[in-house]
Amino acid sequence: MIIAVAGVAGTLGGALLTQRGSERAKRREIELVREHEEIHENRALRRTCYVELNREARQFTTALNRHLHVMRERDVDDADRDALDEAKNAHRDRYSEAQMIAPEEVLRRASVVNQALSKLYGQVKRLERGAPEPGETMETAARAQSEVWEVLRAMRTAMRRDLGVSRED
User: Fold this and answer.
1) Once rounded to an integer, what is the mean pLDDT over residues 141-168?
2) Residue 54, phi then psi, degrees to nearest 5
3) Are 49 and 98 in contact (CB under 8 A)?
4) Which of 68, 101, 115, 155 could form a disulfide with 109 if both were Cys (CB 3.0 to 4.6 A apart)?
5) What secondary structure, in 3-state letters, does the chain show?
């Protein structure tokens, strides 16, 4: 009788242990799949953010360049001001989003771009009003505008590196 009870207990216990082990393995597999999906979703979110930030920063830079050309050729009108402000606002919105998503290295580069664009925007607006600070001229604004492209390239490189698209320095 004892042998029979031990045999039944062993059979039931073995089945129970096998079932628990199987459940544990299945739970771990589900966790791994979730982690993989989360990593994929996070990368997709960063990619979208980076594409939009890069595009809007380039658009803002282009709008500043266009505004400088308009200032040389004719009086600036409301449509010109509106176009520049729309580009500035779109960049501000994308930069704000990046502040919540981007890792430190990308954010550091995006901050440099944002500061350069904000500084240039201020200079352009002061020139437009006819109230430049000492040393601010159309030429210094044009030089600053062309230098923005270099910090944009550095930001784009950091973004590509973060996404695993490029490992180059």
Assistant:
1) 91
2) -60, -45
3) yes
4) 155
5) CHHHHHHHHHHHHHHHHHHHHHHHHHHHHHHHHHHHHHHHHHHHHHHHHHHHHHHHHHHHHHHHHHHHHHHHHCCCCHHHHHHHHHHHHHHHHHHHHHHHHCCHHHHHHHHHHHHHHHHHHHHHHHHHHCCCCCCCCHHHHHHHHHHHHHHHHHHHHHHHHHHCCCCCC
Residue-level pLDDT at 19:
78
Cα 61 to Cα 64, 127, 163, distances in angstroms: 5, 17, 24
Q: Distance between alpha carbon 115 and the CA centroid of its chain, in Å?
A: 16
Q: What is the pLDDT of residues 45-70, one digit of tens each?
A: 999 999 999 999 999 999 999 999 99
CA dihedral 52, 57, 61, 67 (to 10 degrees): 70
Is residue 92 within 8 Å of residue 149, measured between CB atoms?
A: no
How many CB atoms lie under 10 A from the CB of residue 68? 21
Closest listed residue to residue 106, CA positions, set 64, 32, 20, 43: 43
Q: At a CB cut-off of 8 Å and minimum separation 6, what does 77 contact?
A: none
